[in-house]
Amino acid sequence: MKTKKVAFLGMCIALSMILSFVESQIPPLAAVPGVKMGLPNIVMVFMLYKVGAKETAIVSILRVILVGILFGTPLSMIYSLAGAALSLTGMIILKKTNLFAPVTVSVVGGILHNVGQIATACIVMETAQIAYYLPVLFISGTIAGVLIGLCAAMILKRLEKMKL
Amino acid sequence: MKKRDIILIASILIVAIALFLVVELTKEEGEGVTVKVDGVKIAEYPLTMDGTYPLNGGTNILVIEGGKAYLTDANCPDKLCVHQGKISMTGETITCLPNKLTVTVYGTEQSVDLVS
Question: What residues 44-73 of chain B have any CB closer than 8 A to a CB of chain A?
Fold first, then answer.
């Protein structure tokens, strides 16, 4: 791998870690567990379109592990990993179809992130009642996905000329 | 950003609203609340018995008042559970993720759960 690419990927990991930390400092947007803006996804969506699926997956997993060790608990890492994994898988599949714009891919990513976390909560706490939160998370995931997607699209446009 | 993008996002929102309506319309006044920790039921309280009940050895404090249940204190760092408001309809839930604790309203018959 070219040095330039290695350095860039390292920067992406650092950036997504910072975004994750900044996000955790903002007071909860709603009393529902799992409602987050998904700021690190800006980096994920951007990377998906600029670098590729494999690299994005690696950066995503590393970010979850590092943030989990530094700022979180083993339990929060599991929730984070489930959300990030489901989200990224869905985005990769949707992007492969080549039918939709980055914003749409980001929306699906945002929703799947929340769904993944809620599903994990259902499994961990062995109760299906938490699914009661699903409609709220769908809507918040969509709004977050749109905003994150627009952000990533703007960055992609500005860094169009960047070669890796 | 083409038409199919808008269609997909719109359909997602429609599904969300539909899910929301299903949940809202199948709610009824509940009979009591079930408290579960880590999936295991540890307590049950009828909504008619007003009182303050420490849950799970005191990690969360449950209050039942006027037919509604809510948490007034918890030892978790974010206290999201305390801000989740008052519940009284079947299916409504208050969750404390750090303590793996849930308080769910049950009714006269098993309520439809979204995951079946």
Answer: none
